[in-house]
Amino acid sequence: xxxxxxxxxxxxxxxxxxxxxxxxxxxxxxxxxxxxxxxxxxxxxxxxxxxxxxxxxxxxxxxxxxxxxxxxxxxxxxxxxxxxxxxxxxxxxxxxxxxxxxxxxxxxxxxxxxxxxxxx
Amino acid sequence: xxxxxxxxxxxxxxxxxxxxxxxxxxxxxxxxxxxxxxxxxxxxxxxxxxxxxxxxxxxxxxxxxxxxxxxxxxxxxxxxxxxxxxxxxxxxxxxxxxxxxxxxxxx
Lengths: 120, 107
Known about the structure:
The complex is a heterodimer.
Chain A (H helix, E strand, L loop, with lengths): L2 E5 L2 E3 L5 E8 L7 E7 L5 E7 L8 E3 L7 E6 L4 E6 L8 E8 L5 E4 L3 E5 L2
Parallel strand pairs in A: 2-11
Antiparallel strand pairs in A: 1-3, 3-8, 4-5, 4-9, 5-6, 7-8, 9-10, 9-11
Chain B lengths: L3 E4 L2 E4 L5 E7 L7 E6 L6 E5 L3 E2 L7 E6 L2 E6 L9 E6 L6 E2 L3 E5 L1
Parallel strand pairs in B: 2-11
Antiparallel strand pairs in B: 1-3, 3-8, 4-5, 4-9, 5-6, 7-8, 9-10, 9-11
């Protein structure tokens, strides 16, 4: 069974930084594309970013609201995905989900999410 | 960016009823559309991909149809565990986008 477990969420002040982690098990992590989706309070789902696997260059893509502020990375030896979030804004508040994309642009597996609150 | 508009925003139904949810795209996404189910405090679950293909383990009461700009998710007979929020998502154009969701509530 594929499992994704996020961690690292919490309360941070505007302008601050936070690093999220996602531990993945039950699948050959190095073979899959992984990414992050968030849900602001009372809102719908918003795709943020993804990183491909090594055979296709481990390239990453970002949505406009987080480009140049967030950095996605992966450590295949640890089966772990990361999201470094910098220059955080109040509108970044929400639950952050890590996801597996099997290369087709759909999210076949999700974690339970970790809450990030940006507030002074 | 492709905008996905879901309707209605909320539906109040009873177990056993048939439900049809709509997702309309601002431009054609061919058949590159998925549906997800999301319950509070849980991970979202992929139900349908490429408009009409059920994901692994999804019961046959869930079906998807449509192409181009108009799509439908149908639940043939609502089970108690089906009360949730449903989202559509397109992968045709960058960036990937989701609809605003339809909440299916117990009447």
